[in-house]
Structure formats: C-alpha cells, structure tokens
Amino acid sequence: PLVRAFHAYGKAHNKRPYTTQLLTSVVIYLLGDLNAQLLFPEKDKQYDPVRTLRMITIGSILSAPSYRWFLFLSNLFSPKIPKAIAVGLRVLINQLCFTPVFLTTYFSLQSIFTGDSAEETARKLQETLPTAYKNSCQLWPAVTAINFWLIKLEYRSIVSGVVSIGWNAYLSYLNQKAGAEEE
C-alpha cells in the first residue's frame, strides 16, 4: 500500500506539479505547526488554530516559488559535469541564495500576518535569522544533497517534506520565542 501511495503521488506530481506541491505544502506546514504547538507549547496558552492557518497560508505562498527554484537548480548544470560536483554546487547555491531569501520571507510573513509594525518585524528578523540560518546550514545541505543525488524529481518534495515537518516546527518555535521576548 505504501508503494502504491508513492506511485500515486508521483503520477499526480507529473500530471499537476503545482497543485501537488501546494497540497504537499499545506500538509507539511499544518503538521509542522501542530508539532510546534504540541511539542513547544507556550506558557499558559492553548492550541491556536489561527496560528495554524497562518502557517498554512505561508506554506501556500512559498510553495510555487520554492518549487520553481528547485526546478531551476535541477536543470542548472549540464549532465557532462560530474554528478558529485553538480550536486555540491547545487547545495552551495541553494544555501547561499535561496535559504536567506526563504527565511527572511518566512519570518517577515509571520510578522506581517500577526500585525507587527515594520520596526517589530525588523527586530524579529535580527533575532531569528542568524540562528535559523546557522541551524539551516547544519541540516539542509545534507537533505538537499540526498535529494539531488538519489531522489527522482517527483519525490523530492516528500523527502524534504518529512524533514520540513520538524524544521517548520523549529521555525515556528523560533518565531514564537522572538514574539514572547517582545512581551
């Protein structure tokens, strides 16, 4: 049954990649926020469905640009270049170019959607970005390398998605921590 599910996902991805990516992102961000709220509950606060909706919205907004970026990276180097070099360059380019933009967009949208001012948003970015980027460099290069080395294009979002559930919980935790320090 699991193999059939993967095949069905791959077929859906090949037929409607943007729809499949969007729905995958919704599930990833939903589960990531549920994990964050359940594993790192804020003191004296219960589950916040608005926060989960905010996360799903952010995931939906970032879905297509993220997918397009990884398509671009997939096609960036000629097949004549040795695979190890091409994968290494993709990982490096991703970490240097995409990751800072993604993290800045993620935390900015979080801040904007909660009604923060430009000054509050800037402060949150100063607090969260260095830690998030440093920790991203410890996790995502390996995931990205595995994806480009071993995983077919239509299944890469599943691999990244499984890791992202934990990563999104961590980002949500960082964002809430920055908000709590503000109060």
Assembly category = single chain
Poorly predicted sequence stretches spanning 5 or more consecutive residues: none
Strand content: under 5%
Which class of secondary structure composition applies to the elements? mainly alpha
User: What is the overall silhouette?
Assistant: globular
Radius of gyration over C-alpha positions, nearest whole angstrom: 17 Å
- Main sheet properties: none
Question: What topology does this entry show?
Answer:
Elements: H1 2-15, H2 17-39, H3 49-74, H4 83-113, H5 118-150, H6 153-182
Describe, in plain words, how this protein is organized in 3D:
86% of the residues lie in helices and 0% in strands. By secondary structure, it is mostly helical. It is globular. 28% of the residues are buried.
Quick rundown:
By secondary structure, the chain is mainly alpha-helical. It has helices at 2-15, 17-39, 49-74, 83-113, 118-150, 153-182.
Which descriptors would you attach to this protein?
mainly alpha; globular; 0% strand; 183 residues; 86% helix; 6 helices
